[in-house]
Amino acid sequence: MPRVAVVxxxxxxxxxxxxxxxxxxxxRRTDEIYEPVRIGEGLDASDPPRLQDEPMGRALETLELFAxxxxxxxxxxxxxxxTSAIRDADNQAEFLERARARAGMEVRVLSRAEExxxxxxxxxxxxxxxxxxxxxxxxxxxxLVRVGDRVAADSASWPLGAVRLTERFLAxxxxxxxxxxxxxxxxxxxxxxxxWLEGAGKSGRLAGIxxxxxxxxxxxxxxxxxxxxxxxxFELERGMLDELVEELAELEPAARGKxxxxxxxxGDVILAGALVVQAVMEAGGxxxxxxxxxxxxxxxxxxxxxxxxxxxxxxxxxxxGxxxxxxQYDAxxxxxxxxxxxxxGVWDQLGDAxxxxxxxxxxxxxxxxxxxxxIGVAVDYDDHHKHSRYLILNAGLxxxxxxxxxxxxQMARYHRKGTPSLGDLAALARRGDEALVxxxxxxxxxxxxxxxxxxxxxRAARVKVREDVVRLTLDAAGDAALARWSAxxxxxxxxxxxxxxxxxx
Length: 505
What we know:
There is one protein chain. The chain has helices spanning 53-73, 84-88, 92-103, 112-124, 162-169, 177-191, 211-223, 238-249, 253-256, 270-284, 296-305, 317-328, 333-352, 360-372, 384-395, 402-413, 433-450, 481-488, 491-498; strands spanning 3-9, 14-21, 27-35, 78-82, 108-109, 132-137, 142-148, 151-158, 205-209, 235-237, 288-291, 458-466, 469-476, 502-504. By secondary structure, it is of the alpha/beta class. A six-stranded mixed beta sheet has the order 8-7-6-9-11-10, sandwiched between helices. The protein has a five-stranded mixed beta sheet with strand order 3-2-1-4-5, sandwiched between helices. The chain has a three-stranded mixed beta sheet with strand order 12-13-14, with helices on one face. Helix 13 runs antiparallel to helix 14 and helix 13 packs across helix 17 (433-450). The longest helix is centred in the N-terminal third of the chain and has 21 residues, at 53-73. It is elongated.
C-alpha cells in the first residue's frame, strides 16, 4: 500500500502527516506530528523581511526530527511544502539550502495561487461546499477561493495571517480597543476590493480550513455545551463568533490559551485570527462557516489520491466519506450493502404508505448507518455496535454535520440491542430526531436480522398496511427460516417506531 508524508511548513506551525491509500480505493492518515515552530516570528520587523535566527533554528531542528521519523517509519515519499513566511522571506534560499543539508529535504515553496488551490481541494473534498467561498487562514497569510459548482473560479491571497497581524497590531497580545479597531480596518480595506466576495453569502456557503478555524470552532462547541470529539462539519455561526471574539478580547494572551478548545500555543495569536475570520464573514454576508478537520496537507494528498480527475475531487463527498471509513475497518461490504438495500427497501415502502415523511435526508443517513454498522468488529465482536458508534463519532464523516454524524452513530449503536435514543448526543439534535433514530435503528436491526446468515437469501421484505397492521412478507431465494426467526425476535422495536403492530409472514 503506497504511503506518503506531507510536511506542511506553515508560518505558525510545522505539521507532518503520513497517509496511506489503495489506488482508486480507501485512504487514511496513519501518523501525525505537530510542532508550533512559528518560523514567521519577527519576519515583518526586518526590512527586507527575513527569517530570524532563532525561529529558523527551531525550524531546522524540527525538519531534522521529521526526517529521522520518516526514515525510521520507512516512508520514502516525503513532500515538504512551505507557505507564507518562507515564501516572503528575503533569505528564503539560505533556509532551503540549510534544510536540504540538515534534513535532506527538498522543500517546495508554494506560490500564493498554489497555496490557495490546495486549500480549496481540502475544503471542497471534505465539506458541503458547492457554491460559495473556501477560506484558509494560517500564521502568515489568508487565502479565499470563489467556488462555483465545486470548481475554483477565482482566488486571492493576502498577508493576513494570525501571527503576522498579531505582531503588527496586537504586539505583546494587547487587545487595546484602538489596536483591535485598527486591525479590523486593515483587514476590511484589503477585502474591500474583492468584488466576488461581496454578497457571496446570499447564494453560497463559506467553508474554512486551518488551525485558527478549528480552534475557534472547538471553543464555540465547548461554550455551547455541544458534544463531539472533533469539529468536522460544525457550523460556526456569526453570532457565536462575535461572542467569542468579545470574550477573547477581554482576556490576556495566556488566559486565551486556557479557553477550552484553544490550544495554549495559539493563545497569543487566536484573537487576530478570529478577527480576520469575522471580517470575511461580514464582507461576504455569511451567517455561518462550515469547519473541517482537513488542512493544506490533505489538499496536497488529494491531488495524488484523485490524480486523473480534473479537478481532483470526490464525486460525492458524503458517500466517499462513508465508504472510506467502512473500508478502513475492513467491513464486510457485501453484507453491509445488502443490509442497506433491505433497510432502505422497507423504508421506501413505509414512506409510500404514509407511515413517515419520506425525507430523503433521513434515507441518506439510514444508508450511511447501514454501511458502517459493523465497523466496530475491527475492535472486537463483543459490543461491536458500541465500538461502531465510537469509531463513527471519533473519525468524523466529511460532508456531514455533527448532528448528522451523531444520528448515524446512534442508529449503528442500536442495530443489535437496546432501546434506541439520542443519549448524550441530544444537545446536537433537532425536533423529531429522537423518532428518526428510533425508526432508523429499528429498520437497520430488522435488515441485519434478515441477513443474519450473511447469505443474502432474503432479497427483500414486502410491506402491506391493513387495518393499522404492518405486514412484512419475505422475498427469499432459499431457506429463510433463520432470517424469519431472527427478525421476529426484534419486531418490538419496529412496532414502537411505527406505533402499530408488525407481523412477519
